[in-house]
Each structure stands twice: as C-alpha cells, then as structure tokens.
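hiii, so i know i said id send this last week but things got crazy w the move. better late than never?? heres the sequnce for the chain we talked about at the cafe, plus the structure i predicted for it. fair warning i was half asleep when i ran it
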Amino acid sequence: MSSTQANKRPSPGVSHVTIDPESDGQRIDNFLLRHLKGVPKSYIYRILRKGEVRVNKGRVKAVYRLKVGDVVRVPPVRVAEKGDAPSPGRAVLDRLADSILYEDRGLLVINKPSGVAVHGGSGLSYGVIEAMRELRPQETGLELIHRLDRDTSGCLMLAKRRGTLRLFHELIRGDGIQKRYLALAAGQFPGKRQRVDAPLRKNTLRGGERLVRVDESGKAALTLFRLVESFRDGALLEADLKTGRTHQIRVHLNHLGCPILGDDKYGDDQSAAVAERIGLKRLALHAASLRIHLPEEPKPLVIEAPLDDRLQRAIASLREMS
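okay and structure toks below
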C-alpha cells in the first residue's frame, strides 16, 4: 500500500445534518469547513458550485446563511488525516497565544501580527483562524468576526460562540463598534483633519490579485483622518473608518497623495524611498483600538493594541530625520 493510500480514511456516504440553534445564521461555507475538518477550502467551494451540497433539497451559494431546522445534504468526501496538511508551527502558535488582548465567554481579541493572514486559502495552508482553532481545540465555535489585510497588524475580533458572532455582526452593521487605525504615510498631510468621501470599486486582475480604485461607480466609502504627528518625510495619522471597504484606508490615503509607507500595492516611488531609508519592511498600518458599545452595558468596552517594535522604530527614525 502506498503512503498516500495509507493516509486516507474511507469516505463516508451522503449524510444529512439538521441545523440546530448553535449554527443558526452561520454561512454554509464556514459550516462545511468546520463539519468537514481537513477538507481544503477550494474543495468546499467546488462542491457548493457543483450543487453537491444541498439545503432543504435545493442548491445554495457559499454566502447562504443557515437557519434552525435547515437540512444540509453533505456529499461523501475525502477527509485528510491529521498531519496530511501543513499546520502552524509551535512558534506561530506561541506568538498568537501571547497576542491575546481581551477574552470573555464569547469574545476573543488578538493583536494580529503583520504578515499573518486571517485565514488560509490562495496558496496559504493556514491563517489566524486555523491556528487559533488548533491552539484552542476546546473552542468548537471559533469564527472570525471581521478581517484585516495580511500585512495590517492590530485588533482582530474572533467569536467563541454563534450568539456572539451574530451580535457583533449587528453591531458592525450599525454604529456599535468604532475602529481606530494608525498609519505612517509619506508626503505632507494637508491640514489637521481630512474627510475622504470617495467611492471605491474593487477589481480582480487576471492573476487573482485584488486592486481597488476610487471610482464614481463604486461603493460608498468614508474615512476620517486626523494628523497625530508631522515629520519632514511623512506623517503619523489616525484613521476612523465609517465604512469597511477592502483596502479602504490604503486607497483613500493614496487618493490624498499620501500613500502608506511599506505599501507595495498602492505606494509610489516616494513612499518606497522613505520606507527604505528608515529600514521599514512592513505595511505601516495598524488597527490600534476598538470601542465596542454592548447592549445594556453603561460604558463602552475599549481594547487597545500596542504598536510592534518595527513600527515604533520607524516612528523614532522619522523623528530623528525631521
């Protein structure tokens, strides 16, 4: 018997799963990822596209949200044995364990390191959510509440139970959560404050890369910027997101003529030169704090994520050069 054959478990037959209250409101793709542990995400989306997964005997898209009582038809699939796919190393797990900023019965907030994706896919075998599930196997309901770009650091919220995930999605849709970012930008920031109300359109290039541009036909996007500190070669800015579009802060600052230092996608020659002079080798964007207004709580929950050493050194270098 070959080693590949030895690692395969027999494929189970078709199963039908009735959705209970714990899975109410969960997207079908996320449900399948948890239900079919070890199955690649690309395979999950393939069986959804082909209609092999059915809900109440009908085809559904990956964004379908399950309801209590739904009956999900799950086709027979190959489930990888533990160890088939690469998993986070001990160093990554320890780093994430040390990054926890806040935790209660339903919520977990970490200070996500720059360079770590929030989930696997697109050539990545794992991200924060897969690593945290390995770190916390007893937490069977761990889900991302929102996302950060791979190269952005800072506050990332995860739900430990379905009720928390639903509550926080409602808070995000309303005005229940304020997200404050810090960015190091090149050039001279115009004034003390800027309101950028510029619609954004997302394009996917042939290679699968996402690129966002200011475009009147795009979706509404609003960012409020405040100058924190000015340098000869740039500025430390605070950004208050009023909408949550892909790459919003990066594109809006580029629109102002002040691209973020270390931004390989939206930067220019000037920002690249400044980043090189100060030895900065990461995107200078950090999700610095969350202000969460929980129902029936008199005071907001405020969570802050300290800047990593690389960003602190970058700020110190810009001060010295000014």
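btw The longest helix spans residues 309-321. thought thatd interest u
miss u guys!!
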